[in-house]
Every structure is written in C-alpha cells, then in structure tokens.
C-alpha cells in the first residue's frame, strides 16, 4: 500500500498551497485525487491555478477547500519596473476572477485589511499595501453625488498585531465589519515558504480566508467567512523561510552536486542519500529545534523587496476594484 505524506505529522513550514501540493505529490509520483491544477507561463511569469475540490484533497495537502492562484516571478528581485507592471496587470486579472467567482458586483463595498507588524520589515507587507491602495468609502459617505463613475467604496485598515494592540486582528476586523457592512474583505499577510527561490517572488491569492501569524507558525483565530460573516479573499507573499528549510535545501544541492561528480554518493552522503525529502527535513528540524536554532530568515534586501511587491499588489487591487483605473497601466495609480 502506498504511503501518503502526512503534512501535519511533519509540520512542514509552508503557507503556499502549491508547495503543499508538490510535497504531497512527491511520494505518490503523480496527481492527488481531489486536486485540480493548471500551470501557464507568460514571459517569465508562471501562474498556477489550483482547486482543492473535496475533503480528500484538503487532507492530502493540508489546505482548506477552495481556489488558489500562485503567481511566480523569479526575476522579480531584479527591480525591473517593466516586469513589475506586467505582474501587477496579471495579478489584477486573476484577482478579478475571484471577485466574479464570489459574485461580488461592481458596486460592492470592500474592506482591505493589511495584517502584520509595520515595525518588522518582513511582516510589514499588509500595512504597506494599505498605504498604497485607493480608499474611497469616505467620499461615498460624505459626497456621493460627486464620485465619478467607475469607482466603488473601498476602506482599508492595518489593525496591527496582538503583541502591540493586545487584541486579536480577527476581533478588530469583526468590529469593523459589523459597523461598516462591507460585502467582501481582502486580507493581506506575509507568509512562509519552504523554497528560498519563492521568497519575495511569489504571490498567492485564495478564497479560503487567512490566519494572522501563519507566516511564523502561529495558529490563532483566523479571518474566514464563517468567522466574520462575509467572503474573505486572502493575498499572501512569502517573505521568510525557516533555517531548517535552508539546511535541507543545502543538503539537496550537495547531493545533486556529488551525483554530478561522483558515481558513489552513498559513500559521501551516507544515510542522508537514502532519505526522502520529508524524512530529511524532519531530521534537520529535530536537530535544530531543541537548540532554538530553527530561525526565520529573510534576504538582506528585504526593505526594497517588500516595497516593490507591496506596490505591485496595491496597483493590482486598484485596477481590479475600480473600473476607472486602467488595467494596462496599473502602476500609475499607486502613490
């Protein structure tokens, strides 16, 4: 009988559904029942649409049932503004499909929630996006007759983190939802990846809601339709990777290097050469965790990266939420 990978057992530190699928597929050697995915490539931008169709698929990869879109752009760290504009346009296009799937009409009221700690750069994605999105709800409230066609009521808030406010982000958002009655909530948060290459180069959109602190392994009360009463679209970017993941990736690269230069990797790598990826990762975690060395790591250029990707997301949101914003020139509408 084929042995399945239990993600809960190994506590794999990834918030990306795409990575969870890849890890679950590895021991199977093929597709997972209940998981439908399609990948396309457009001049350096790889887009994977993943649908977790049922409970079997959800259990297999450890992610909630729903739709996930992952936009991967390996060259995003190069600071190419032309590429950033193309990514923002692609993001806007796919985000609009989520609005359509949830039947969010063009006049629906939107609340954007930027989760995270603005004092910690890798966790500041949400607050930075909130700074750059177009907020219009106050115009609809105070001077509705002067609002030009093609805009909708958008409000935005960065509620901070539990350690600063003493209040769960979900409780703050619940209170705002009860008072302002948005039709949909868009939650943005930093995530953790198991792949160093995907850090600050990947955007995930999901209609399954979000859990504050997921990027650092916290499991607390989340932002979902069941909890706050309105649909929640989650946007996440991996900004950190665990030290155990880096060590494991290094062992994989060493193994590949030795294979290319030696016919006997068993002699060099020993038992490591015979281990499956999940087994090797668990061994690394068991060694590092008791020592307190399973650190969260982020690139030294994180200040620049986080600003760039926050602008991309804000630009895409502005274009997808307001018809008056030119989808083909989204970058012009951030400030």
Layout of helices and strands, plus pairs?
Elements: H1 7-10, H2 17-28, E1 35-42, E2 45-52, H3 55-61, E3 66-72, H4 81-101, E4 110-114, H5 125-132, H6 137-142, E5 154-157, H7 162-165, H8 169-180, E6 184-193, E7 202-206, H9 225-228, E8 232-242, H10 243-261, H11 265-269, H12 277-288, E9 296-297, H13 302-321
Helix pairs in contact: 4-13, 5-13, 10-12
GO biological process, one term: proteolysis
Catalytic activity: Endopeptidase action with P4 Glu or Asp, P1 preferably Glu > Asp, P1' hydrophobic and P2' Ala
Organism: Paenibacillus prosopidis
Key terms:
single chain, 335 residues, alpha/beta, Rossmann fold, 2 domains, nine-stranded mixed sheet, 13 helices, 9 strands, 18% strand, elongated, disordered N terminus, Peptidase_A25, zymogen, Germination protease, protease, Pept_HybD-like_dom_sf
Q: Could you characterize what this model shows?
A:
The chain folds into 2 domains: 7-244 and 295-327, 3-Layer(aba) Sandwich (Rossmann fold); 245-291, no CATH class. The model is unreliable at 1-11 and 213-217 (pLDDT under 50). The chain is built from 13 helices and 9 strands. Strands 1, 2, 3, 4, 5, 6, 7, 8 and 9 form a 9-stranded mixed β-sheet that branches. Helices cover 40% and strands 18% of the residues. The longest helix is centred in the first third of the chain and has 21 residues, at 81-101. Helix 5 packs across helix 13 and helix 10 packs across helix 12. With 335 residues, it is of the alpha/beta class.
